[in-house]
Amino acid sequence: MKRFVTFIIVMACFTGNAQNIDDVLRYSRENLQGTARYQGLGGAFGALGGDLSALNINPAGSAIFNNSLFTITGSNYHTNNDAVYFGSLGTEERNSIDINQIGGVFVFKSSNASDPWQKIALAFNYDLVQNYDNEKFVTGTSNQGIDGYFLNFAQGVPFGPLLVQDGEFIEEAYLDIGANLGFRQQQAFLGYYGGIIDPVDETDDNNTAYVSNAQYSGVNQDYFESTTGYNSKFTVNLAGQYQQNLYLGASLNFHTVLFDKYTEFTEQGFDSASEIQFTNFDNLLHTEGSGFSFNLGAIAKLNENVRLGGSYQSPTWYRLTDDTSQRINSDLADSEINFIDFSVVNLFEAYRIKTPGKITASMAIIFGPQGLLSFDYGYQDMSEAELRPVSDPSFSDENSFITSQLGVVDTFRVGGEYRIDNVSLRAGYRFEGSPYMDGVTVGDLEAISLGIGFNFGGSRLDLAYSRSEQDVNQQLFVTGLPAPATINATNTNVSLGYTMNF
Known about the structure:
The protein has helices at residues 21-28, 36-40, 146-154, 170-180, 183-193, 393-405; strands at 10-14, 69-85, 88-109, 117-131, 134-142, 197-199, 210-212, 219-242, 246-268, 278-301, 306-313, 317-330, 344-348, 351-354, 358-366, 371-381, 386-388, 408-420, 423-432, 442-455, 459-474, 485-501. By secondary structure, the chain is mostly beta strands. It has a single domain (10-501), classed as Porin.
């Protein structure tokens, strides 16, 4: 059948899904973002308050403000990823700039000294919880090829239903198989028409055994991954000062997610006897959605020098939709395989993710106008994360896997500030434990920060530098290539914020 249109957008609604533990982790974790002052003190604001980004930890913090104000912050994000894969090193860097925080608070003080509620604060704040702009490059000579990926999906799949029917376009068959049979069968289809694998008996429609067309003892592989997007949070906050020493607050948080992930994978350097001498396999994932969470918190002022804080951050309930595109090629690929490209889009049904709640305990020591020290401890049980609906059999299996792999994340934050006239010097340290029980798949995160602030009376200018480092063992694909790349991820932020009192 002749094709009259060279650019075709074909879409199908999938009943299957490919969501997994990586999606849960992506939306469960929050990076150190927010105002420049917040970043300069390492985010240790649970008992301090008086900062718009501190509402992410303790919503009672807005009642600490003495006057109404507006704050805006912009950041430069720099990522560096060093990936070691079968003894070879690949390095990739990325730089981006964004407005990561903007918000304001209105403070209403009681004119009646006998009123138990001395102050009420209403705050609105936008924070960039995660900036997903990142790039990774992995290279090495591996003894595991992409044929393993397709073989693992294909084994046990009947061959007959994978065949393109008479009068059917190859891209129509690709989408139809994904929509009606599932992701596993669709990947088996790609492996076959991409020339990577063949059935043992091509004459038998009931054949369920497959073999690889690639021969190698070691194959040269390059993997490039580029991600873009964000997870943002818009907070509506209400807090009050009760009598002289107690601050109470609550926040409603509305999350917005936009995430794109593009990967390129190439193989070459096969054995001379191999029918295949090169393979390309590229994937594109687009995710968007929204979420909701709430916070409750309190700050107690024990005396002029010591404050204690406690807060509860509810689970975040996300509703997300995915769409994916793929393309594949090799020496043995079907002549029409290039019609399956990024213009052929798989649409998945909406799904939900529930991230775990978090409890934070805090203490701050105030040294009069000279400075302060602040400490935060956070507890979050990542094993309670869920893909939903839990009645979905594949989600049920993945949730069991999440429970078996993830554990408690302990977070420690320490921050200090020292004031010299109108200049404030700041420093902070943050430790976040691995979400994995093995402590290796994703390692512990450590971060340091420095900051400086200039107070002009009616306004303030703040500058902060923060650097975090974490090791991650990343598999290139969900199956078939079990040996991971060890990636040392270093993130550096430079943030500038302006605050105006009114």
